[in-house]
């Protein structure tokens, strides 16, 4: 899948002017509220007719204002999952799902495969009013998939859910990313969601693209901290499960060494994605001894960014991966932290929570 988006539109007090291209996978539109994320999604879906622009999916042109082309929403084959599920309360889950097939303009996903993919087989006879928020969103996703979309849009589908329901649905979104061929545009301002799901991140601010590229690269970009926010800064590493230990720890092989995490429910060889928050990384110039922390990665300082307060953000290269560490300016000076300096990044095993670990399908 290739996605190409060029949009320009004017609102009172706000001007949208974005352009990006994305490879196959999940393209996340990320930014603060009011940055233009949903506006871009609506323009791609055909719910907004922009002043100027071009949108193409796999070479199929949905919008080209110069050529006078504007496909109406019902002809774009775009499945849209909103924050609120918008299911029909008087219909069963099965009939809600089958409703999506009424609008299929291509070959829809197999009904049984979608049901299994989203884990909703035991819900088919139930009315949607009796479902939890996470269950309702899974049904809404299934209905969209069964409409045979060439592109799936999700506008902050987890925003209305509490943390347990988010934890429930994220693995299904990962399976959707890895097991279907339908490309996905996902709108979010949640860094943990982006770290778990994104293939490509398009970072928006005030209607403009600030950065765009692979998720691991963008999230660990020290220059992206003002948009991400210092509190949410962190890097994404990929690794493979090497071994499950009897004491409840999972050994993960990453390019810079080995990480030990609380039990990850995955077999040896499984590929995973790990978000390590900058505030959970400690630096040492010498390899430490006698620490309770198990995760010690040799690294080289790639960049340093000082904030307005007492904090400093340090970008590290550990093997092929990037890490971020948030330390004080005083500590940085005491350790002589600067670009090119060799050091060790230390991460407490229990600091990496379940919400920051996700599976990647082969």
TrEMBL record:
Coiled coil: none annotated. This is Molybdenum ABC transporter ATP-binding protein. Residues 290-356 form the Mop domain. Pfam families: ABC_tran, TOBE. InterPro entries: AAA+_ATPase, ABC_transporter-like_ATP-bd, ABC_transporter-like_CS, Mo/tungstate-bd_C_term_dom, ModC_ABC_ATP-bd, Molybdenum_import_ModC, Mop_domain, P-loop_NTPase. Keywords: ATP-binding, Cell inner membrane, Cell membrane, Membrane, Molybdenum, Nucleotide-binding, Translocase, Transport. GO terms for cellular component: membrane. One of its GO terms (molecular function) is molybdate ion transmembrane transporter activity. PANTHER family: ABC TRANSPORTER I FAMILY MEMBER 10. Residues 5-231 form the ABC transporter domain. It comes from Halovulum marinum. The keyword Amino-acid biosynthesis does not apply.
